[in-house]
Amino acid sequence: MANRTEKTAKTVKGTNPQFLVEKIIRQRIYDSMYWKEHCFALTAELVVDKGMDLRYIGGVYAGNIKPTPFLCLALKMLQIQPEKDIVLEFIQQEEFKYIRALGAMYLRLTFDSTEIYKYLEPLYNDFRKLRYMNKMGRFEAIYMDDFIDNLLREDRYCDIQLPRLQRRWALEEVEMLPAYKSLLDGDLVAMSDSDDEEEEDSKKEKPRLTSRRRSRSRDREREVGDRREVREREKMRERRERGEDEPGPSNRDDRRRERDRSRDRDRRDRKDDDRRDRKKESSSRRGGADNDEEREIAEANALRAKLGMAPLER
Fold it and tell me: Per the domain annotation, does 22 fall within a domain?
């Protein structure tokens, strides 16, 4: 009895409202502790109290397919089928965001296409953050406008197969819906106008700036090129005067070899000069000693001649 739809409930999409949820998931909801403890004998007024206690949204999670309280309350609303004014009050109130999400889910399942676009599109301007539990049992952060966009675009969301929704452009062609107007259209138009004005001003000013910059850059390039040419010419003149060829890898190797050879020659010449100087010094020393002996002998013979003595023999 607790799992049966209300007798006064009307069919939705040609079937029992609870049948919008798949049988397997519906049976898991009936077997869950939250359904048995908190969803028994709920009325439309009591659903508001339970919705105020919600802290996250989602479908089923974990390996044994556990339903979230959000999914249980959505099925309970399908079972009791609250009045349209109560559902619209769920959506239009701004204090409790999870009650708004619950009302948006129920509206997407039961209302027709024109009413869905009419009441859900204004919720695009709600940017509050919601906690969403994925199938792994982990929380993810989404926003209210993302939640509404998924309800309008996805075929399956929160593990519920959403009823087919007519395209908005088809309803606009039949004049069942007016053209969509976003609150951001005015800001976008103002931004586009300001961008157009800035582009026009930049187009008027840019040619002058570019022409001046180009002329300046060309003059600088010419000056730098002239300086380089003058330097290269001076280097070429100096090389010609010295009789040097243009620097290359072979010429550099030859110059290094010549430098090494000249250094070796200088070292050899220095050694030969040192040897010659040493020989001269030794010979000069020997010649000076012989001259001294001859002088002494000559002086001694002169003195002996005065005294009438015989000269010394060498």
Answer: yes
Count of domains forming the chain = 1
**pLDDT > 90: what percent of the chain?**
46
Average pLDDT score, the chain: 82
- List residues bridging with 141 in a β-sheet: 131
Q: How far apart are CA 241 and CA 245, in angstroms?
A: 10
Per-residue pLDDT, 30? 94
Which pLDDT belongs to residue 246?
A: 47
Give CA–CA dist 238/76, Å, rounded. Answer: 102
Could you tell me the residue range of the domain that residue 147 belongs to? 17-173
Q: Is residue 9 part of a domain?
A: no
Q: Cβ distance 72 to 34 under 8 Å?
A: yes
Distance, CA of 85 to CA of 75 (rounded, Å): 19
Q: How many CA atoms lie within 13 A of 86 on its CB side?
A: 13
8 Å CB contact between 73 and 39: yes
- Is 96's pLDDT higher than 90? yes
The C-alpha atoms of residue 48 and residue 50 are separated, in whole angstroms, by 5
Residue 156 lies in a domain: yes
Note whether residue 279 is domain-resident. Answer: no
